[in-house]
Amino acid sequence: MESTTLDLLERIFLTVFPLVAIVSVGYVYAKKRPTDMSVANAINIDIFVPALIFSVLSAKSFDLLKYQELAIGAAIIVLGSGLLLFPACKILKVSPKTFLPPMMFSNSGNLGLPLAVLAFGEAALPAAVVLFLVENLLHFTVGLYILDPKTNPIHILRMPMIIATIAGLVWSGFDWTVPTAVATFIDMLGQISIPLMLFALGVRMTSVDFSNWKIGLWGTILCPLSGLVIALALSPFLNLDAEQLAYLILFSTLPPAVLNYMVSERYQQEPHTVASIVLLGNMGSLLVIPVTLFFVL
Q1: Burial environment of residue 167 by CB neighbours within 10 A (0 to 12, 13 to 18, 19 or more)
Q2: What's the pLDDT tens digit per position in 214-225?
Q3: Domain boundaries in the chain?
Q4: Cα 192 to Cα 49: distance, rounded to the nearest angstrom
Q5: Exposed (0-12), middle (13-18) or buried (19+): which is 93, by Cβ within 10 Å?
Q6: CA 257 to chain centre
Q7: In this structure, how many other beta carbons lie within 10 angstroms of the beta carbon of residue 248?
């Protein structure tokens, strides 16, 4: 029994350490040399992440129907977190437009993708990509609508990630084969995305704003807690095997996405408060994620 526990703790360490190490490298580098990641982040979102998505979805092993229950569960967790925590906004005396998006839209890209692969192996990547796509699709539709009801959701179709998603699903649906040279080229581009996401997260951590630490601390607690409550409540109703349920639970406890801060800055929706919620939430995940892994691995 003791040997099994030690093996599990070792696996958790081997999962979490590479993530923390890369984030730390980004943090230390940016502390010594102030770094503007805006161009690198834009390239990652426009090229490297779409390449990763297309590479995974166009593979012959990808079966969309296999992940439909997982996608439904993820969507309910995202939307349900907003509904569940809406009353808390009045208690905490914070605007729902400020507090709810970080509670709903998690770090399923920067953290979720590498975490799933390190915890469960490369076989988990398709599921992690599906969870990432569901979260991002809702973020760029429902999330933007929360901040600005005049937002035109049709604009999402122009996003490289969505184009890559559609192309990958069409490719897989018709059972087409990507030429080996082209597949290698796309795979190599996609492999850049995950380490770059983690490095960028470390750089972003240098701008931690503790002026709104109280609301940030509440967000650190309520974000994973609300997601986990919904995931556990859903589990009897979703036809998920043990592996997919583990993916969903891990997804439900992820911290707020860094993108929440960027979007709040764009719409001038109390960006400093959102920064506190996002960055303290990601720091808190250093405790939440190992605990979650202990129960799902």
Answers
A1: middle
A2: 899 999 999 999
A3: 2-296
A4: 8
A5: exposed
A6: 6
A7: 27
Using alpha carbons, select from 206, 231, 226 the residue that is nearest to residue 282: 206
Q: Average pLDDT, stretch 96-110?
A: 93
Query: Quick one: angle between helices 96-104 and 271-296, nearest 10?
Result: 30
The predicted model scores a pTM of 0.84
Q: Of the candidates 144, 131, 289, 290, which has an alpha carbon nearest to the alpha carbon of residue 223?
A: 289
CA gap 202, 200 in Å, rounded: 5
pLDDT for residue 121 is more than 60: yes
Do 242 and 73 meet the contact criterion of CB atoms below 8 Å apart?
no
CATH number of the structural domain 2-296: 1.20.1530.20
Closest alpha carbon to 244 in 113, 109, 128: 128
**Cα–Cα distance between 120 and 151 in angstroms, integer?**
38
pLDDT average, residue stretch 138-165? 84
Structure tokens at 139: 């973020």
Q: What is the C-alpha separation between 229 and 236, in angstroms, rounded? A: 13
Question: Which residues lie closer than 8 Å to 195 by C-beta, 6 or more apart?
Answer: 22, 114
Selection from 225, 12, 256 nearest residue 115 by Cα: 12
pLDDT score at 234 = 95
In sequence order, the 6+-apart residues with CB closer than 8 A to the CB of 139 are 101, 104, 105, 257, 259, 263
In the numeric block, the tokens 């109280």 are attached to 214
- Residues forming beta bridges with residue 106, ordered by sequence position: 256
Q: Which of 71-80, 86-95, 140-149, 154-163 has the lowest mean pLDDT?
A: 154-163
